[in-house]
Amino acid sequence: MPVHPHDIIAVIDVGSNSVRLLVARALSHTAFEVIDEARYSARLGAGQAGGNLTPEGIDRGLRALAIMTQLAESYAPARLLAVGTEALRRAPNADEFLERVRERTGVRIRVLSGFEEAHAGYIGVINSTTLTDGYLLDLGGGSLELMTIAGRQLREVQSVPLGAIYSRETYFHSDPPAPREIRALRKAVRRSFVPVAGAPPVLFGTGGAIRNLARIVRIRRRYPLGRLHGLELARKEVRRLARELSAVPTEARRRIPGVGSNRADLLHAAAIVIDEVMDILGADALTVSGQGLREGLAWQAIRGEAPILPDVRSASLAGLALANGVDVTSAEPTVSAAASLFDAARPLHGLGDADRQLLLDAARLAGIGMHIDYYNRDRHAEYLVHSGDLHGYSHREVVLLAALVRWADSGTPDLSPYRAIIQPDDTRRAAVLASLLGLARAIRRRSPSPIHDVHAVLEGTALRLQLRAAAPIDAELYELENRRRRFEAILRCRLLVEHVPGS
Questions:
Q1: Residue 139: its pLDDT value, please?
Q2: Is residue 121 part of a domain?
Q3: Residue 399 neighbours by CB distance under 10 Å
Q4: Which stretch of 123-132, 275-284, 295-304, 387-396 has the lowest confidence by average pLDDT?
Q5: Could you tell me which of 152, 244, 427, 478 has the fewest CB atoms within 10 Å of its CB?
Q6: Cβ-contact 449, 472 below 8 angstroms
Q7: Would you say 331 and 363 are in contact if contact means Cβ atoms under 8 Å apart?
Q8: Is residue 124 part of a domain?
């Protein structure tokens, strides 16, 4: 049964460590918005050394499934998907658990193979990041999947039972672990993976433990953005965390700022595994993905046989706009005007094609704060860019986009809170692009716009704007006059505006 726009999808992920729920509303064939999430630390795979799920694990799992099912069904979803992973793959008594879940909740859990789990996680990551060639690490409670990506396609999957729970229970018998136990875990990881010939040492990662490590790093850096998605963890930071977390017992680990209380007994094992994988691959950094298995299953439900988005950025822009009451196609006249201005003024500003694309993307998003509060629309637009589901951009690009939508109409972009993210020339870059976007928005002050054609040409030290319109354009000329001084001060160029009558 196909999923249509406005349909709701619920995904329940029954993992070895936790049971998670994602509830999403389809916005289009290329976008969805998350409307609810929940997590229950069921530890279904705890104590599974002999293979069977323990009675305590089964009881925790049943309670978690009852909670998640009740939450999911409260949204009357068009599709409810429930999947199981490593703990259920390897448990001889998994069928008993699945039957008890069905009797108690009515939900049938589909146990994914290692490849199916990896493929769904790959879809979630590839549809939300810039990953093109390299590796994807998906670390759960039970298993670890290392995927090789080439040309955005999944080429190879290596799956081993070295998730956080199983690594700790198999190799660590003291708290904190003894040096020989840590060496044994590192050797197990090294025996499990071989780098793929020709694959670049680019590494992305997904999973709760990876996000928890990113949260610790963000706190320590005093990082100015609240986003974990897209955050880069340097190899030295991961190694430092692996050493620090494994040097202290669980209760001391729990007191470290950023450590999740329900991960304090596992996080050191996860950090060691990640550190060793980075060493094997020669990766200098790991880029965090906030999306994975559950989002990948949602994409499969929405897009069917073609779950991979052809263009992550454009789909993400349209999705963020739709989620905030804006149709990006209505912004295309402004986008066109911004492109004309940028191209004509290129000899003055000297910016490149990547900057041009940021300007056009900002033109598409500039109205997203309107539905929250007209009078503070620019600040709300900035917040939505910082905090919304905007994918396919680096954190630096997110900062610049947010600055453009915030300062398009007036003022000078203030990037001082983001010194840890931006490049030295970005303050000037943001000022130039914001001034161009402000002129484009002035030209398209009314919708539908009476201006049929925008022609911009550089004449020595002056930029001449010829605006063709059959109707009077006093409103547009007034807005341009208000923004002329800022443009001239930043570009050191006179602005000449001419109304050319005609259709």
A1: 94
A2: no
A3: 24
A4: 387-396
A5: 478
A6: no
A7: yes
A8: no
Q: What is the spatial distance between Cα 290 and Cα 295, in angstroms, rounded to a whole number?
A: 10
Q: State which residues form the domain around 14.
A: 8-112
Instruction: Look at residues 237, 247, 246 and name the one whose alpha carbon lies nearest to residue 216.
Output: 237
What is the maximum alpha-carbon separation in the chain?
A: 84
CB 13 within 8 A of CB 293: yes
Query: Could you report the per-residue pLDDT of 411-440, keeping only the tens digit for each?
Result: 899 999 999 999 999 999 999 999 999 999
Give the Cα-Cα-Cα angle 458, 462, 468 (nearest 5 degrees).
65
What local confidence, expressed as pLDDT, does residue 369 receive?
83
State the Cα–Cα distance between residues 174 and 177, nearest whole angstrom.
Answer: 5
Q: Tell me the per-residue pLDDT of 146-194, one tens digit each, with 9 for 90 and over.
A: 999 999 999 999 999 899 989 999 999 999 999 999 999 999 999 998 8
Q: Give the residue from 251, 154, 255, 263 showing the smallest Cα distance to 207.
A: 263
Task: Tell whether pTM > 0.90.
Answer: yes
pLDDT of residue 368: 86
Shared domain for 263 and 405, answered yes or no, is no
In the chain, how many domains are there?
A: 3
Residue at a domain's end among 255, 290, 325: 290
Residue 362 belongs to a domain: yes
Under DSSP, the state recorded for 265 is T
| Amino acid at the residue 173 | H
**Is residue 306 situated within a structural domain?**
no
Residues 232 and 285 in one domain: yes
- Which 3 state secondary structure label does DSSP give 156? strand
Residue 83's closest CA among 118, 51, 59? 118
One-letter amino acid of 448 = P
State whether 278 and 388 are in the same domain. no
**What count of other Cβ atoms lies within 10 Å of the Cβ of residue 498?**
11
